[in-house]
């Protein structure tokens, strides 16, 4: 199984590795979700979805199905 | 020396304080579109920059990039690329914010590539020390080919030098930041050869967006086989975004220093509470509850005052002006009509006040985050919360606010169910009927029963919206790729100036927009109520006098009998009587029927209509609308017209019926089809009729 | 008489205003969204 943003635990950070460009909306890229950037999981909404992230300094929330498409590496606890 | 007039366009990411910069420049010299809505329509303002230069400031909808992903963002692109538009800017001001500079600069580099003079405003500089950020302005200016204005619209710092900077717009560099051809060399080479006179980035935007221009039509590009598949285009747009970020990162590496050690975090603590699985929902519920209780409690006094003042004005006009048709029109048509508009001002003001505080503070995004999962079960998005709450003000801006919902199915369902939420136009109807049929008592010593009823009606509206969304979710078969991105802005103390300007603008829009309609209808109603087609109307005096000869009535009673006979035989009376069979099972008389029909222009007209009908029908003008309604009895049974059963039935009818022509028009516009507004009309009104019928028959 | 003329002028203004408002709305090019999912 791939390691994705969805596998992060609250408070953990990681580096964005790769994602399928056709699935991820352009808007997310424009907000800084690009390979090589740092992502931190700040909060998880009640019932486990959506996820509240800090990507490259941008604070934003995405749904878990989108998070599952974004591969990450080198998780920092 | 003649004055020069220039166009300035303000553009920026959402939550950068763009609107406060706009307010700081223009103050109250603003014009918004007809309907309230936060920077959805074109918003213009005026600003005197110097003794020789005046500026028209255009506040464009907030956007993250020029790659439009919503109808709102299309507006931005169309304006910026159309040189023939009379609003085409002489200079563009990109508003950015110190904490999110990197992301804000993405939009800046795109704007810069349009080769229009551009100024970069960095807002919220008062937070720089607090966040441990320092900027090398000369470095940034030279590498971004622009001039930078450091401002704090909140603390009013730097606005004057910013204004001065705008006046120097002719000296600004128009050199682009990114060489568009580096996205795909071969492709852009051929483009350049075919259209030697166009800017490359502009061509690129036209290829990737669904926009057309006078001098550059998308079709002409299609014929030249420049189109690529959607997937190829998307890949190129991604490449573009990555290139832009590389450029920005290089510059900020030198131009921006962040000392994260000094950055303190208040946001995460508040987030933890406000999005908590128990506290989050409780706080949200209490905020809503508080809003509705205070709207009802606080606006009661000014509303009663306005009601009484206009009743007095009416009788004053009647007693002092020379008698005649025009005086009657003023006393019975125009004055009650204006009263019927002004009476809503207190409630609307409070409502808009609360909504704009929720939006300004950043709390609304937390609610979106909190509610998304739950809302999705009903086919809605967390973002549907914003239209559903702002729908309590007016469904029209609320429906326009659905534009930022990315998924079409979720957006469509939100549009269709939003009119169920209790809009401010229903409020006066509720207020007056609750005042008549629900006792003014307290339960548990502090909860006002009338306030509770109002709260219940609001909840009912929400519940019905959610319930119909669920049905639509199950019935509609649309397969859409879902995606959901919502920015979580930092918490901000709402800026009094912004809130006040927002509230004034919206109240003004209501008074002058809906107000004109209400007043016109009041005038027409008055004519219909004071003229009749048959001799029964013109000979009412003699008919009634001869009928009652033997009863020995005093003059007042006789006059009021004549007046009500006249009303029954006037045009409006005949219309009302003809629909009476349809509405009497609901407990309404023909006068209420007329009020319901005229409500189709705008619901608020209900109260004004009854005011007009009772003013014409009654002999004294001094009484308030509420007292007139309270004393109205059924001519045959002698029972009160506004009793508990008919009151509840009316409340339910107004809660569910689709009675707003403007909402239907905006649904048509946003869905591009008549199918959906017609569905709303038939389903909502049919349902309202059935529920009201059941309620009356059970309660009577 | 003057009173009646004034009253009818007011009526005329009201009718014309409402008529304009609801029947002669300036049509702008609406191309926001279709029935499909491609409205972004």
UniProtKB/TrEMBL annotation, chain A:
InterPro entries the record matches: Fe-transptr_FeoA-like (IPR007167), FeoA (IPR052713), FeoA_core_dom (IPR038157), Transcriptional_repressor_C (IPR008988)
Keywords assigned: Iron
Ferrous iron transporter FeoA-like domain mapped to chain residues: 3-74
Pfam families reported in the protein's UniProt record: FeoA
Iron is among the record's keywords: yes
GO molecular function: transition metal ion binding
PANTHER family xref list: FE(2+) TRANSPORT PROTEIN A
Name by which UniProt lists this protein: Ferrous iron transport protein A
TrEMBL record, chain B:
Binding-site positions, Mg(2+): 23-24, 26-27
GO MF term list: ferrous iron transmembrane transporter activity; GTP binding; metal ion binding
CC annotations in GO: plasma membrane
Transmembrane segments: 278-296, 334-358, 378-400, 412-438, 450-472, 509-529, 641-666, 678-699
Keyword Transmembrane helix: yes
Membrane topology term: Multi-pass membrane protein
Pfam families: FeoB_C, FeoB_N, Gate
Key words, A-Z: Cell membrane, GTP-binding, Ion transport, Iron, Iron transport, Magnesium, Membrane, Metal-binding, Nucleotide-binding, Transmembrane, Transmembrane helix, Transport
Keyword Glycosyltransferase: no
Domain FeoB-type G: from-to ranges: 5-172
Superkingdom to which the source organism belongs: Bacteria
Cell compartments where the protein resides: Cell inner membrane; Cell membrane
Role summary: Probable transporter of a GTP-driven Fe(2+) uptake system.
PANTHER family from the UniProt entry: FE(2+) TRANSPORTER FEOB, FERROUS IRON TRANSPORT PROTEIN B
Cited NCBIfam families: feoB, small_GTP
UniProt-recorded name of the protein: Ferrous iron transport protein B
Automatic annotation (TrEMBL), chain C:
Transmembrane helix listed as a keyword: yes
Superkingdom to which the source organism belongs: Bacteria
Transmembrane segments: 6-23
Record's keyword terms, sorted: Membrane, Transmembrane, Transmembrane helix
Protein name, per record: FeoB-associated Cys-rich membrane protein
Organism in which the protein naturally occurs: Flavobacterium cellulosilyticum
